[in-house]
Amino acid sequence: MWSFPSEPTDLSSEDALLSSGWLLAASLLIYQHRYNTEVHQTLSLDLRQVLNAIIFRNKRPVVLLVSIVQFLRAILRQNFSSPLVTIVQNTAQGATQSQPSSLEDAALHPLTTQQVFSLAVSLQNLLVHVYLQVYKTPVLEQ
After folding, report:
1. Entry pTM
2. Which residues of the chain form beta strands (DSSP E)?
3. Hey, which end of the chain has fewer CB within 10 Å, N or C?
4. In Å, how far are 8, 27, 57, 60 from 14, measured between CA atoms?
């Protein structure tokens, strides 16, 4: 059974606003898909930057990371195809990458194999971090 710490967490107004924005975007994405609503405005999303926000956490609050993961979950359920969200993936050279470079990458498109591995490791680390925060005990002591 999960129990949450009783002490308040320090969440800046900027982080709270960002978390709310990610959750709102995820909700809109799910709603648009479920009810096939008309879209008048699209969101452009640089997938590399979103993944880097999770992979390289840099002291971001867990609630913000969970909000981003909820959004990714919503877009993954639609196979990265939605009238609401346009996925933009820029390469390091600044040119837009159009075709995957390998068969593995084609199966994961628009994600690369390396991004999937990095995301999986980062999500595992996030789960461990949350577990340690909730139970305040090192994993190895059990």
Report:
1. 0.70
2. 43-46, 85-88
3. N
4. 17, 20, 16, 11
